[in-house]
């Protein structure tokens, strides 16, 4: 069984997330997603609208995701690749090169991001258009 892993915040799940996870899953037979905890988001300088538990449940319900684990720190990837017997590590290409250190343990692929959508853009749009009901 070919196992794939990827990591991210996955807040306000959108089409760019959908496309990344679908392509990642289609590279193998089993996809694990490491979802950034709220604490790790603080370290990443990211603030998500939805807490970790919500972001985790949405991904667990998604057909192309087989397992969701917490991403607590930058350093856990090497251990995860061994622990989960990973064959392919995948990230969007905004991360190109950042995780090449994993190449001695598994294949490392950076897939083209989906243009025109990001959680930040969604948040900014809502902030601009949202009228207090
Ligand atoms: N992504 C994409 N296209 C978009 C937006 C995001 O392909 N329009 C991809 C990103 O490249 C990433 C994944 O979707 O692979 C999740 O994106 P984020 O939730 O923004 O994750 P990020 O903050 O980049 O965290 O250790 C790695 C980090 O946790 C990655």
How much helicity do the residues have? 25-40%
Catalogue the ligands: [cytidine-5'-phosphate] glycerylphosphoric acid ester
Major sheet size, sense and barrel closure:
5 strands, parallel
Gyration radius from CA atoms, angstroms: 15 Å
Uncertain spans: none
Would you give an account of this structure?
The chain has 133 residues and is α/β, with parallel strands linked by helices. The protein is 35% helix and 21% strand. It is built from five helices and five strands, in the order βαβααβαββα. It has a five-stranded parallel beta sheet. Helix 1 (15-25) links the parallel strand 1 and strand 2. The longest helix has 11 residues, at 15-25. It is globular, with a radius of gyration of 15 Å. The mean pLDDT is 96. The structure holds [cytidine-5'-phosphate] glycerylphosphoric acid ester.
What's the quick description here?
By secondary structure, the protein is an alpha/beta fold. Helices cover 35% and strands 21% of the residues.
Itemize the secondary structure elements and their pairings:
Elements: E1 3-8, H1 15-25, E2 30-36, H2 38-44, H3 52-60, E3 67-71, H4 76-83, E4 88-92, E5 107-111, H5 119-129
Parallel strand pairs: 1-2, 1-4, 2-3, 4-5
The structure holds [cytidine-5'-phosphate] glycerylphosphoric acid ester.
């Amino acid at each position: 069984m070919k196992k794939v892993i990827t990591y991210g915040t996955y807040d306000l799940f959108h089409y760019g997330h959908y496309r990344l996870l679908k392509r990642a899953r289609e590279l193998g037979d089993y996809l694990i997603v490491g979802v950034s905890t709220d604490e790790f988001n603080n370290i990443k300088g990211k603030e998500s609208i939805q807490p970790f538990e919500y972001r985790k449940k949405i991904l667990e319900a998604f057909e192309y995701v087989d397992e969701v684990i917490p991403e607590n720190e930058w350093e856990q990837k090497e251990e995860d690749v061994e622990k989960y017997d990973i064959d392919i590590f995948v990230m969007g290409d905004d991360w190109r090169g950042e995780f090449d250190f994993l190449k001695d343990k598994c294949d490392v692929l950076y897939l083209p991001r989906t243009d025109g959508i990001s959680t930040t853009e969604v948040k900014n749009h809502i902030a601009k258009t949202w009228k207090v009901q």
